[in-house]
Every structure is written in structure tokens, then in C-alpha cells.
UniProtKB/TrEMBL annotation:
Residues 769-868 form the Coenzyme PQQ synthesis protein F-like C-terminal lobe domain. Residues 2-194 form the Peptidase M16 C-terminal domain. Keywords: Hydrolase, Metal-binding, Metalloprotease, Protease, Zinc. This is Peptidase M16 C-terminal domain-containing protein. One of its GO terms (molecular function) is metallopeptidase activity. GO terms for biological process: proteolysis. Gene3D superfamilies: Metalloenzyme, LuxS/M16 peptidase-like. It comes from Attheya septentrionalis. Belongs to the peptidase M16 family. It holds the Pfam family PqqF-like_C_4. Residues 217-383, 493-658 form the Peptidase M16 middle/third domain. SUPFAM superfamilies: LuxS/MPP-like metallohydrolase. It comes from the Eukaryota.
């Protein structure tokens, strides 16, 4: 305690801190609160310390900020880590994986905030385009991915030092070539040292500067909590940021410091100042070293890859144990000849052409057009649109104030459309000519209809918010406090919903121009619908391999785009494949065109030329490793089993892995070309894109689809069905119980799932209300009070049109049976609490859920995701949240109790209830109660054992499904 008090006295003082306060008060009120709550913090340390932060004020008397701060810790102790021993640390992982990491300890970076030299170097070392280190290593089939730079953690970016690291994801072959990989890394560093002397091309810095600038300028708005946290960290003394750069000092590049880059490359990024870590399942996995084996590697079962031959590693002996996490590792001194080879490679030079190393190419995806696309004149932007107004209107001989919301503006007629509280709509002439850039605040007053109607602004929409309806009186406060039901905004005009701009068998494209966020970004989401995608595990596995190959083949292009904040992804889905392109709209379709052409080039008999030699086997290895690592966490395995029980067309990772045994490129192309032979596409183009841009997208997608002869699209009746098992009503739960896949995982996971039935708005709203009522008490009782598990939750589930509710417990101190019984007992006990619930409390839940459903989207990505889910599920209810809120207003407590009794209640009047339910238990291997009744599965047939249990459940349900819902 004495040492704690001493530490407090030495470092707890105002000059050593930063404080940021945000709140709904005036500046004077905020200042009063700050003085009240923080004036007791001492201005200087109570006790002196040789490590106290030094605050240095310059002698310049001008208004320019010239205060700096310096930490003396490095002066007293030097660098914190000893990297001079030239060792490699060999580590045993939990999962199937291979990674190589090289870390260098460099000087603290805070004083270099203007130039950010580590960002410049990491941009070059971590590049993935042609000529990059990654590209060269992928050609050798040694590496599948890399990352370079300084992390954001306190141990990586501190006032005393920084850790610059580069990590490679290796193939199994690459593990044997770790030293050669590092040698090529130092060759690249040698090339960078050469350019330190000759001079780097100026466009590299200019590209980086431009990218940093547009990324910062158009980044998504942070929540108040995130903003305060970000600003408080930026204002910390050791960052040395002047006040006028707190908002952008850590984001922008202000200058290029060639000397700082040279200093880092020549004096810090050297073999003698590095730490090398090699983690690989080639050395075994964590469960291989459990107590039945001890640390004697000779007793380990010989797994794939343990044939690795390396004299350095053969002399390692038994592994050491890291004391905190029990990780097994070896430490080997790297031979001096190897270190010397690396040093020679790092000498400033231009590498030979055979090395395939060069500086990055000029990036063609840097956006330069940030103009917002014009809206239709009859439904244009106007600063009043979506505002909540009060209008003074004559009623007989008197005048009264009525609330209304502005929903549209017709620029041709200078009229606004108002939606009144009773949902009546009326057009009004705007008397004043307001430009969109005109700014005003609540309480602004003006007139409509030749000054016959006076209006006052009550509330204005926030960025991302739609129509606002408020009253400008105490009722607004009651809504915020949850005592009043929130006002329901008017329906979204039809023109503001996604519009079907292409509707053919080949392409169905929805378009929506953004009006809320007003940023030069867009989202293009596509689903490629393929017949037979769910036919067998082979089709599922080939679909996954196709995704891996496409991602790998397009890395060099997609990386260039990602540097410019234009992202892309491809995934295998239940209907075929999902594609997403997002970011700045200017170059978005350029990227989409390149990737679509590569993806659709697989409609032939042979691998397309974009798949380089050796990449098929490398991607196949990556996918097999992914399958091997699937379901390693108890909670994830539990959710996966529950989902597979209710969706019979999902194939397990083990079944797909078995299907890939002996797969050849020709067999793969036979399967994948058959899947892609007839494809239909449905998409959503959303954001800063008008009708003209939508037409360009239609042409681009159609042209790509028609590039193969006979491309006519897939008839609707041949689209893969997404059936969901119809659970029979039982008095007892069907139970599936399996052990954890990871033998070292002591956690036990339990999910109790209740199926409700096909989607309809009333049931959907009732389920959400039940979840809202149960969420806090369920967590409070089982997690907080009874300490049942570290992860306790409940919530609604929506699976391709079938609704349900799930209760989850992850625990290391209770058995699976105890967890299941406790969930059942909670549901039974809570029935009385529902019955006794006061009407005021019930309405607080109703009001709270309504507020949640009416909350605005925080980003274009979030809104697009919501719309896209309606498309992928086939429901197309664009305003479903508003529909639910309208219905929610009429739901009674008795209706809620009746639904609870029917769907969840274990027994009624002493008789067990018939419910559609399922219990999944994944039982851990701990020493305590959590491992009770743990089943014993043959490790080699773990996946097939789970498949057998799931198939048994399907048979017990009679293989009955809910049929086609949408």
C-alpha cells in the first residue's frame, strides 16, 4: 500500500493528464462541472521522481504552440527489451497455424507526428501489389499473407520506444524456409536503403498524404463516447500534439522526413536489433503437450508436418513453459552465418530482377472526385427536409400550433411536403429561398404560403437520421426518459426506398441514392445465385476453395484499392456467392469490373491465368487449415451445431474437408464451372450514386455475365431453397451433447433454442419485446448474482424467415446439466414476475424497445446492411422497423404473457408444456463440474460424430421443414 501511495503521489497530477468532457450543457455549465469535479487534482506531483514526465515550455513568446514533453524513462533505463541476442523463439499454437514474426525495437515516435516515418516504411514493407515482398514470397508458395507496422497497444507505441514488426502467414512449406524469408525481407530493406541515398520517388509520399487526407476528411462520425476517448488520448502529454492538431495530428501526414526514414532503416531495422518468433503446428499443438505427454516431444503423436528437418531445431530439447499462459516454446540462438547473410542482404543495393522486388506501382484507385451527385429536382435536398416543425395555423377565429415533419422538397415549385401527426400530408410554398448550405438551428422561424402560415423549427435531423417528429415541449423529455411512447415518424416516401432499376432473369438490381450521410461513398452488394450450391459437401467445399482462390488471385489489385479506402470481399453463401464493394464511389466500379471479370473467368475447363502456378495447392492448404480450426471455441461450436440442426443444407467443415481429399484442379474446375454455368445476380447499389451511375453498374455487371456464351441467367424456380427444419412440439428438450474440439478448453457452452414459427410482424414484435423484458434480469440473475458463467445472454433469432429465441450460457464452473436446468427454472420463475409486473414497468419496456427500433443508422454501411438483409432473406420489407413500432403501440401485457406461455414456459398448471425446442451442449475438459458427462469422441472422427448426432435430430424431426416462406 505504501508503494501504491508513493506511485499515486508521484504521477497523479494535472500536468501529467488530459481531460476531455462532452455533454448537453453550455460551455459555462461544462466549465462549472469540470471545476467542481476535478479541481482537487493537484497541479504538480506531491513527491518528486526521477521518472516524472518533463514539461518543457519554449522561450518563443509568439502565439505558436511550443510546449513539449519528454519521458526520462528511456534516459534512465534505456530501451526496455534486449534484442541483441539474435535468437529465434519457436512456439506451439493452440490452432492449426504457421506464422513468422520479426520485431525491431525503435525510438519513440511521438516527436515524429508530422512525418510518421514508420507509416511510410510499413506502407512499403507491407505492400501486397506487384513487386512487393508478399508477391515475391507467394510466388515461392511460402507465404499467404503479411502485415507490417507499429501496433496501437501501449507496449508497442510508448513514450520510451516503439515496436515495429512484420508478420507473415506461412504455408507449411514456408516453415522450413523461415531463414530464407527473412533474408528476402532484408533484401527489400536493402533496396529501401538504396533509395534513401538515391531519393524515393516523390509520388509515394504524395499518394500516402492524399490517402490519409481523404480518409480523415470523410471518415464515419464517431459516437460521443468514442470521440471523447480518442481526443483524451490525443491530448496526452507524451504525444506532443499542439491544441490545433488534436483532431487530425494522429491521422494526417504533414511532411516527408527522409532523414527519419533513413535513421530507422539503417540503425534500427537490422538483424542485430531484431526478435524472431516462429509459431507453427508443425511443432505440435497445445493439447499434444497435456499432462499425459508431458514436455517430452518424443512421446507426441506424429502429426502432419512434424517431419520438419532442421538441425537448429533438432537440438532444442524439451520445450520451456511460459509462466502466465502455459505456452510451450523453445529458444534457439541463430547461427552467426545466418545473421551475417541477413546483414549482407540489408546492405543498400538494388535487388536483381530475379528477386521480383521493386517499389509499389502508381495506385490507379486514388479517388479525386468527391462531388455529391445531384438529386431529382422534384425530390431535392433542402435544409428543411426531415426537420420537425411547429406550424401556427388558423382554426376558426383562433390560431393553434400543430407539429409536422418535412418529408420532401420540390425544387421546381419551391414547395415542401409536410406530414402531420395524423399522417395527413400537404404541400406548402416556401416563402424564403434557402440554399442547402444555409445553416440554421432549432427555433429558427419563417413562413409558408405567402406568409399565411408561420413555422418554427423544433428539431433537426442528425447526420444519418431520417425524418424527425418532436413536439418542442415536455413530452419530448418524457420520450427520452422512457415514460412516453416515442412519436412515430411519417412513412418513408416511395422514392426514398430502393428502386428496382433492372429486373431480368440475368440481373435484378436495386438502387438507392443516399440522402442522409452526404459523403462521397457507396456500397455495391451482389449475390450470385447458383443452382446446386447446396447439393453436397463437394459443392460446398469447392465453393469455399473458389472464394479462397479468387481472393488470392485478386490480391494485388484489391490491395491497391483497399489502400484508398475502397474495399472488396467475396464469400460463399447458402445461395451461391456474395460480393461486396464499398468505399469512395469514384473508383468503386473500376474495382468491381476487375474482380467480376476474374470471378467469372472460372466458367471454363481450366484454371484461369490469374491463378498463378502453385497457388491452387497453397490455397487448398489454407482452406484445409481453416476447416481444421473450425469450432475450436466451445461457444462457436455450440452455435454452429444449433444452426446446422435447423438448417439441413449447411455442410460441416469436416464433411467438406473429406470431400476435398484428392481434389485436383481439373475436378475442381468441373464442379465450379458447372455451378457458374447459369448464374443470376441480385444486387443493391447504394450511396452517392444517381440513376446514371446505376445504369453504368447495370451495363458493367451484364457485360461481365454475358462474357461466356449461353449466359441466360437462372430461372427463379431453380434458385437454391433455404429450408428450415420444423421442430416437433415436445414436453422434453431434444438434446445434442458433444465434447469441445480443443482438449485444452475448460469452458462448457449451452444453448437452449425455442422455435416460434414463420415470420409475421406481430410474432416478430412479440419476440423482440420478450427478449427486451428478459435480457437484463436473465443476465443479472445468472451472471451477476449466481456467477453461473462469464458469458450469459438471450435474444431473438431470425433464420430465413423462421423466428425463435435462444438462451446461452458459457461457463467453466457449472455443468451443462446445471446450466440447462437453471435456464428452465429461470423461465418458470420469471412467469410470476411477468404476471406481477406493473403497467408502468411494462410500458417502459414497450417504450424502450420502440426507441431502439427507431434509432438512426450510424453509417451508410449499417443502413446498407439492413437493406441488404431484406434482399438476401427475400422479405423486401424496407421499413420493417417502423411497421413493428406501429404494432408495438397496441401490444398488451396479457398478449405478451400469452406468447410467453406458448413459446417458452416449461409447464402450465403443473403439466409440462409442449414446446418446439432444442438443447445443444458442448462440454469442456476442465477439472471441475464443467466437464461432467463429457462425451468421448474419437479425435480422428470428431466431425463425423457431430454430423451423426445432427442427422439423428433431423430424422427425429421427420425431416419436416417449414417450406418456402418468402
Amino acid at each position: 500500500m505504501a508503494e501504491l501511495r508513493k506511485f499515486y503521489n508521484q504521477y497523479y497530477y494535472a500536468k501529467n493528464m488530459s481531460l476531455v468532457v462532452i455533454g448537453a450543457y453550455t460551455l459555462d455549465e461544462l466549465q462549472e462541472h469540470v471545476v467542481d469535479y476535478f479541481s482537487h487534482v493537484p497541479g504538480k506531483p506531491r513527491e518528486k521522481s526521477p521518472l516524472t514526465m518533463q514539461h518543457i515550455s519554449g522561450t518563443d513568446t509568439s502565439s505558436v504552440w511550443n510546449e513539449t514533453h519528454h519521458s526520462p524513462i528511456a534516459d534512465v533505463f534505456g530501451m526496455p527489451f534486449d534484442f541483441s541476442s539474435s535468437c529465434i523463439y519457436r512456439t506451439v499454437p493452440v490452432k492449426e497455424r504457421h506464422t513468422l514474426s520479426i520485431a525491431w525495437q525503435v525510438m519513440p515516435l511521438q516527436s515524429h507526428w508530422k512525418s510518421k516515418p514508420c507509416d511510410y516504411i510499413s506502407h512499403l514493407l507491407g505492400h501486397e501489389a506487384a513487386g512487393s515482398l508478399l508477391s515475391a514470397l507467394k510466388t515461392k508458395s511460402w507465404v499467404t499473407g503479411c502485415y507490417a507496422g507499429v501496433g496501437s497497444g501501449g507496449h508497442e507505441d510508448a513514450s520510451t520506444h516503439a515496436l515495429f514488426s512484420i508478420s507473415f502467414s506461412l504455408s507449411e512449406e514456408g516453415v522450413s524456409h523461415w531463414a530464407e524469408i527473412i533474408s528476402l525481407l532484408y533484401s527489400y530493406i536493402g533496396m529501401l536503403r538504396h533509395y534513401c541515398v538515391e531519393g524515393f520517388p516523390g509520388w509515394i509520399y504524395e499518394e500516402l498524404r492524399a490517402i490519409h487526407e481523404v480518409s480523415h476528411k470523410f471518415e464515419d462520425e464517431k459516437s460521443p463516447e468514442e470521440f471523447v476517448e480518442h481526443l483524451a488520448e490525443a491530448a496526452a502529454p507524451w504525444y506532443n500534439l499542439p491544441p490545433d492538431r488534436l483532431l487530425d495530428g494522429n491521422s494526417l501526414l504533414f511532411e516527408f522526413d527522409a532523414n527519419a526514414v533513413k535513421n530507422l532503416l539503417e540503425n534500427y531495422l537490422t538483424p542485430g536489433n531484431s526478435r524472431v518468433d516462429l509459431m507453427s503446428s508443425v511443432f505440435g499443438r497445445a493439447h499434444d503437450y497435456e499432462e499425459n505427454h508431458g514436455d517430452d516431444a518424443s512421446k507426441l503423436p506424429k502429426t502432419d508436418g512434424m517431419h520438419l528437418k532442421n538441425e537448429l531445431f533438432d537440438s532444442g530439447g524439451p520445450p520451456m513453459t511460459e509462466p502466465m499462459f502455459g505456452t510451450k516454446f523453445w529458444c534457439h540462438e541463430i547461427p552467426s552465418a545466418v545473421v551475417q547473410e541477413w546483414s549482407n542482404a540489408a546492405v543498400a543495393h538494388l535487388p536483381p530482377d530475379s528477386s521480383m522486388l521493386s517499389l509499389p506501382p502508381v495506385n490507379p484507385f486514388i479517388p479525386v472526385d468527391f462531388e455529391l451527385k445531384a438529386l431529382p429536382a422534384d425530390d431535392a435536398h433542402h435544409p428543411l427536409v426531415n426537420c420537425s416543425l411547429k406550424l401556427c395555423i388558423s382554426v376558426g377565429k383562433k390560431k393553434a400550433w400543430f407539429p409536422a415533419t418535412v418529408t420532401k422538397f420540390n425544387g421546381l415549385k419551391n414547395q415542401v411536403l409536410l406530414s402531420y401527426e395524423d399522417e395527413d400530408e400537404k404541400w406548402h410554398l416556401v416563402d424564403s429561398i434557402l440554399q442547402e448550405h444555409d445553416s440554421f438551428e432549432p427555433d429558427y422561424e419563417s413562413t409558408f404560403d405567402n406568409k399565411s402560415i408561420k413555422f418554427r423549427i423544433v428539431a433537426m435531423p442528425e447526420v444519418g437520421e431520417g425524418a424527425v417528429l418532436k413536439y418542442g415541449d415536455d413530452s419530448d423529455f418524457h420520450v427520452e426518459s422512457g415514460t412516453h411512447f416515442p412519436p412515430i415518424p411519417p412513412p418513408i416516401p416511395e422514392s426514398r426506398l430502393p428502386q428496382l432499376v433492372s429486373n431480368t432473369q440475368l440481373l435484378k438490381l436495386w438502387h438507392l441514392q443516399d440522402r442522409k450521410f452526404k459523403r462521397p461513398i457507396a456500397e455495391l452488394r451482389l449475390k450470385l445465385v447458383c443452382a446446386g450450391i447446396n447439393r453436397s459437401p463437394l459443392e460446398g467445399a469447392c465453393a469455399d476453395l473458389f472464394v479462397t482462390l479468387c481472393s488470392d488471385a485478386t490480391t494485388e489489385v484489391s490491395y491497391l484499392a483497399s489502400v484508398c479506402e475502397i474495399g472488396s470481399s467475396i464469400s460463399a453463401t447458402g445461395f451461391g456467392f456474395g460480393l461486396r464493394f464499398n468505399g469512395f464511389d469514384h473508383k468503386l466500379l473500376d474495382l468491381a469490373k476487375v474482380l467480376l471479370n476474374v470471378i467469372l473467368s472460372f466458367r471454363s475447363d481450366e484454371l484461369p491465368p490469374e491463378v498463378k502456378p502453385g497457388r491452387f495447392d497453397a490455397c487448398l492448404e489454407v482452406l484445409k487449415r481453416k476447416y481444421s480450426n473450425a469450432g475450436m471455441k466451445a461457444s462457436k461450436l455450440c452455435s454452429e451445431i444449433r444452426l446446422r440442426c435447423i438448417r439441413p443444407t449447411i455442410w460441416s467443415s469436416s464433411a467438406k474437408a473429406d470431400a476435398l481429399v484428392g481434389i485436383t484442379p481439373s475436378k475442381f474446375m468441373e464442379v465450379i464451372s458447372a455451378l457458374l454455368k447459369k448464374v443470376s445476380v441480385e444486387g443493391l447499389y447504394h450511396g452517392n450514386v444517381g440513376p446514371a451511375e446505376a445504369e453504368v453498374a447495370i451495363s458493367l455487371i451484364t457485360e461481365a455475365l454475358l462474357s461466356a456464351p449461353g449466359s441466360t441467367g437462372l430461372p427463379k424456380k431453380k434458385h437454391p431453397s433455404q429450408f428450415v427444419i420444423k421442430m416437433p412440439r415436445n414436453q422434453t428438450h431434444p438434446i445434442i451433447s458433444v465434447p469441445t474440439k480443443d482438449l485444452t478448453d475448460s469452458n462448457t457452452a449451452v444453448e437452449v433454442y425455442f422455435q416460434v414459427g414463420p415470420d409475421d410482424v406481430r410474432k416478430r414484435t412479440l419476440i423482440d419485446l420478450i427478449a427486451h423484458v428478459l435480457d437484463e434480469p436473465f443476465y443479472d440473475q445468472l451472471r451477476t448474482k449466481e456467477q453461473f458463467g462469464y458469458d450469459v445472454s438471450c435474444g431473438s433469432r431470425w433464420t430465413y424467415g423462421v423466428m425463435g429465441m435462444c438462451f446461452c450460457v458459457v461457463t467453466s464452473c457449472k455443468s451443462a446439466n446445471e446450466s440447462t436446468e437453471r435456464i428452465e427454472r429461470f423461465l418458470e420463475e420469471f412467469r410470476k414476475e411477468l404476471e406481477d409486473m406493473k403497467d408502468e414497468t411494462f410500458m417502459e419496456h414497450v417504450n424502450g424497445l420502440a426507441k431502439n427500433k427507431l434509432q438512426m443508422f450510424n453509417s451508410l454501411e449499417e443502413e446498407c446492411g439492413n437493406l441488404w438483409s431484406e434482399i438476401t432473406e427475400g422479405r423486401y420489407q424496407w421499413d420493417s422497423e417502423r411497421q413493428e413500432v406501429v404494432l408495438l403501440k397496441s401490444i398488451t401485457k396479457q398478449e405478451l404473457i400469452a406468447a410467453y406461455d406458448d413459446w417458452l414456459l416449461p409447464q402450465c398448471n403443473g403439466t409440462k408444456n409442449y414446446r418446439q425446442s432444442l438443447v445443444v451442449k458442448v462440454i469442456g475438459s476442465g477439472d471441475g463440474p464443467s466437464s461432467e458427462d463429457r462425451p468421448v469422441f474419437d479425435a480422428e472422427h470428431f466431425g463425423s460424430e457431430i454430423d451423426r448426432h445432427i442427422t439423428g435430430f433431423h430424422k427425429s424431426a421427420g425431416q419436416t421443414t417449414w417450406g418456402k416462406i418468402f
